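WARN no homologs supplied; continuing
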Amino acid sequence: MSFINSLFAWSILFGVLCSACNRNTPTPQQLIPIPFELTATPTTPFPSLAIANVSIVDVENGTIIPDQTVLILDDLILKIGLAAEVAVPSGIQVISGNGMYLIPGLVDAHVHYFDPDTFGNLMIANGVLFVRDMGLPTESILPLRDSLNRGEILGPEMVATGSILDGYPPLIPSISQGLQTPEEGRAAVQNLAKAGVDMIKVYSLLKKDVFLAILDEASKQGLKVVGHVPDSIYIEDAARSGMASSEHLFGFEKAVGQLLGESLKLYYNGMGADTDYLNRLNEVDSQTLQDFYERIRASGLTVCPTVVVFKAGTQTRAFQSGNFPKSEYISSKVLDIWGSQWSGQSDLEETIWQNWAKMVKGLSQAGVPMMVGTDLLVPGIIPGFSVHDEMEIWQQAGIPPLDILRSATIIPYQFMGVYERTGSITEGKHASILLLRANPLEDIRNTREIEGVFLHGRYFNQQDIQELTKDIQSAVEK
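OK structure emitted
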């Protein structure tokens, strides 16, 4: 279990995040002539580009809407309609959508955005256009969040928790605050709210009374509490008390122990110390397990499982050797972080991630809202690419592509409070969208078939995407 015990205990100081370089707007795709014209008037917004004859994936309803033309004005979707009925002004950039599918930008709901110089390019190249940062120093991550959201540096939009709230002493001192009393917990929430965080991140060492005080104060401040279910409380109690999202498998392993009638101790005994209970998932009576899933759904808890982390943990030796797929995209500063987590670490058992994937399927079937996340910065997690890996794991577990796509788009956009302005292909919303060469409702792996990316009013075609990845390879080689 050394992989679990060292997974999040980052031992080197993060320091101030490097600023990402501004990049030039990509070269526009060659215009495709369309035999329609629209005379613009002072009261008629004039679109900046159009996507013609495309099939729109309605993720909410699970349908395909064919033969659509989408007009985009700067960063907004101006108009959507049948291709035969939407007039496209002459002289604007037009992208052919013949045989293509349009979906909302993907979300990585659990990242530590430590290396914006490489993460931004890889996120965009993989269609990940929104992220939730789950723990970096408040004074560093909030300015970076604001720069990303203003489009000043290349990368996805972001919400951020700022520094993590943990027990004393905290597991990761460089990015956490160690708290010992309920009063300290309330004060920490107040300070984070004043700083402008989007959510409050809690961690494993918190005492129950401190955790409950954090939940209460965060509710007063209008902030969701997300993160690790502390080892001092059962997951159902945490959810009933108002915890909004649970990350990784933490809390669920103890739940399996409970369902098996085991006597559990509610204190920290190492990260994921009770993970072996996942290997006994099949011992739990099916109705008992279903009842548990139903109680989780009723509690309102959202789950971000990050199964890909535990699958990557089965290949620790390969990552340590440097001989692993996509190593050309990992910078030396990220490798240094990985190295700090590898001390005394061995490969994780395959059954851990496989049984967690089974539980994810059960949660999905029970209607528990889930978000796709990767815990970016953990060893073996490749920026952007691992979002697709996580979705593929879910599909292999038996979750339908539509439900997976909802967990990578609508559900996290709604959870993060931004769905009114982005996250679906709707008139008036931001044009953070992907053009795919294949239907993702048939196979979730088709989200890898990216023809183009739209972000902040900029269109990245195939050549632009290739340049983004080449830039990263060049930077890493230096």
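The mean pLDDT is 89.
OK
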